[in-house]
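Q: A reviewer asked whether we had any structural model of the full assembly, not just the individual parts. We don't, so I'm hoping you can provide one. Inputs are below.
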Amino acid sequence: MCGIVAYKGKEGCSDILLSCIKNLEYRGYDSIGMALAADKSNSIEIRKDVGPIDLVDEKLNFTSMQGNKGIAHTRWATTGSVTKENSHPHFSSDQKVYVVHNGIIENYQELRKELTDLGITLNSETDSEVIPQFIAIFVKEGSSLIDAIRKTILKIKGSFAIVGMHEDEEGIFFARKESPLVIGMKETSDGSGEKEFFAASDVPAFLSYTNEVYYIEDNEYGIIKEDIVFRDIIDNKIIKKEIQHINWDIDQAKKGEYAHFMLKEIHEQKNTIVKSIQQPSSLVEEVSDILKNAFGIFFVGCGTSYHAAVSASYVFTHVAKRHVNVTIASEFRNYKDYLTDKTVVVAISQSGETADLIDAIKTAKEKGSKVVSIVNVMGSTITRMSDKNIMMNAGPEICVLSTKSYTSQLAILLLLAHAIVDKEEKAKELIRKAGEEVTKIIDNNFLLLEKIAEKIKEENSMFLIGRDLAYPSALEGALKIKEVSYIHAEGFPGGELKHGTIALIEKGTPCIVLTTEATRDMIISNASEIKVRGGYMIGINSKENEVYDEFIKIGELGHANPIAMIIPIQILAYHLALKRGCNPDKPRNLAKSVTVK
Ligand code: M6R
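A: Here is a predicted structure for the entire assembly that you could use as a starting point for your response.
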């Protein structure tokens, strides 16, 4: 939900800022803007407009802007429609203070009224504009910049990550509450000992420049000058922070030989699935002890991460013989009366920044429950809120669609289910085989899936069915198809279609049938019910059947089947997107990390 970036260091930094903000385009692409200045001078230049970064850059030529410090923003609109005026950076009426913001200011109407009552004419319809306006007012009243920032932040209710500049002041200021913000630091290569500073919503923004970072916590703010001063918003005390080293390398955040990140990340699964279970054995032991001793386990997530939770609940039932409650994060608060200090909440999230899940974790913590998180982004908010963290080791996932993070989540949860009953080695063996299956599935079916996509690309609606372990794969498959190709797709348990939805089947309606060995006979009879009504049947299974019009063969992997069966659907969704003229990496209306509730 919006990407923010700041840089301070070398002259001619507009190309650095542009490359950093491009790396965050997955967080939103409704509009882009940039403001640049020469530090210690008194002139800030701003350019911004509506549209994706490359198109706006063609028009505005961002790299011709001059300066050695600046801020940039890519927007996923929340408050205020998609217009140039609502694009960031926002600035104060005296054109002294420039700010980019990610988050939601809940009391913005009240604050906007306060400003208009003071005679200020607002330039936009946004919540964000109140920030530079109030900072400018406090400075005009005599506050120092640092005090003006703090006074402004204390007025705000809601979430924010901000970076900004004041025309008469040195440096870049920043603040954070409940929206991600990291600061990167690099010694310049000219041996002068001078430093370059980066601030961004997410590490991949500046990973090609540095992987030495400071994580900014909630209620922290400060100013970057020759060095950084971090302060606590509440008591205003100076905070000492340690720099941390990030293990991701820049190649993981580049497309390389692939046409799209989506395709690259689908292919990467042969390795990421295996890497995901390379966990310290003491951690796996500790977490399985926590789960064994729990009285009440909740798996909680959103979107794809929720589907991984549903899938894992079947494995926990079958393998670990443990009942698990599975809850969509935004609904979790309804269960708060059942939470105690013996409850364990397993929070699942690629980004570690999903607002609904953060809210669920807060609910769990209020009740004294333990939180174990399964997260991909190191240092993210959720990792810092949890009692135990299992990192997914999938590397940066840039495409808005979750692909490799899903299979990593499935693999980790499969490992935990087995670890509880001392069958960890069995899980590892299945996951290793699943990794090997990925390449086979892609190589053997890529062209066939493209042919199928060509046949069905004009359809308005599709269905996916599966029973038992294959049912959550139907849910996840439907989400993949919907979000990237905009074809309406729904996943169902095989037995459920006949209770109503079968009325929608007509001649040629595509239906994907997901089969496990244990459910084969039952799902085949459900598939026949659809076929006789005209359905175009696409089977994903280890065994061919005459009910299928198209057949995608996958190896039989027992409880690891969901890892294999999602691969062909990810590829089908990719082909469908291309054939329908959609950009697989940037589906409309979506953003990679959903930091609003
Ligand atoms: O970062 P998270 O895993 O917490 O994100 C949860 C969902 O927003 C995410 O899975 C979303 O559904 C993706 N677009 C799915 O491809």
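A: Points you may want to mention in the reply: The first strand starts at residue 3 and ends at 8. The chain has a mean pLDDT of 94.
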